[in-house]
Amino acid sequence: MLICFTYEQNAGIAGIDGRAPMQEGRGPATPPALTDAGLRGAVVIVTGGSSGIGAAAARQLGTVGAPVVLVGRREDPLNEVAAQITAAGGEALCVPADLADPDSPHRITDACLARYGRIDGLVNNAAVVRHMPLAQWDTGCFDEHVATNIRAPFFLIQAALPALRESPVRSVVNISSSSGTLRRVGQSVYGMTKSALDYLTQTLAGELAPLGIRVNGISPGPIDTPIHATWADDLDEAYRWLSGQVPLGRIGAPEEVALWITLLLSPMASFMTGAVIPLDGGQVIDRE
Ligand SMILES: NC(=O)c1ccc[n+]([C@@H]2O[C@H](COP(=O)([O-])OP(=O)(O)OC[C@H]3O[C@@H](n4cnc5c(N)ncnc54)[C@H](OP(=O)(O)O)[C@@H]3O)[C@@H](O)[C@H]2O)c1
After folding, report:
1. In the chain, beta strands by DSSP E
2. Which CATH number is associated with domain 33-279?
3. Is 153 in the pocket of ligand 1 (CB under 6 A)?
4. Nearest ligand 1 atom to alpha carbon 77
């Protein structure tokens, strides 16, 4: 298979050495775009495809010719991202579903198979996040985190397994978080689910390797998405606090994660499984 790996740059505003300039405290103004990843025609399910990292990944996958199945609870944002993908020449199917519902994994894979007859890749990206002290947690909120962030990825992989086995691509990417490594006070439940997701990535990578199915993860640090509005009252203050934790001195752009999701799905990572890639500007490095 010929794999062509090219970057598109906006020559008009590219920075020094042809690279996109960095915005103050944010990612590159024009992140590089992958235009061919050996995924043309590969059908990929992206949970949380209506916002942030998932939406960026879905758009990136659309650009490389992979039909994308977008999953999220709210229909309007799903339709908006699908419209962006089709306007750019890609293909998308929206499957509104609440991943906290135990029936969702099968409903999602059934909808994908009904439309495309195949599943080549799965991106377990959706998650919920609350940061609060132990005393404030109730079982409902705890269970929502476990169901959405851990149970759903596990059973989506299980539901997709028969179709993945038939695919030449056979790739799963789980999105965890630097919070799963950092053990931050107040992030006990979210961090626990992300640590567990990394565990799942590595154990299932071993279990599914004999089937040729690769399971990898990305552990992002702070990324510029709407998720921070779910826990921060003052976003500017939150972004300052987050940037201060990152040796590279800024938060990341969703497109910077989307690129690695696409790479992990693609045959460019054909010898990689069980990897959890920190994509965090160095956040998890102990600098003390
Ligand atoms: N942004 C960061 O700084 C950061 C850092 C580390 C890790 N991450 C991880 O990256 C992933 C994506 O986060 P993001 O920042 O892109 O968040 P986001 O912009 O808030 O997007 C979250 C997505 O997940 C969907 N979702 C949430 N709960 C769902 C449920 N129960 N069922 C179905 N869909 C659900 C949301 O759609 P609906 O609300 O419509 O359901 C939305 O599409 C998450 O796993 C997050 O933990 C993010």
Report:
1. 7-8, 33-34, 44-47, 68-72, 92-96, 121-124, 171-175, 214-220, 276-279
2. 3.40.50.720
3. no
4. 40
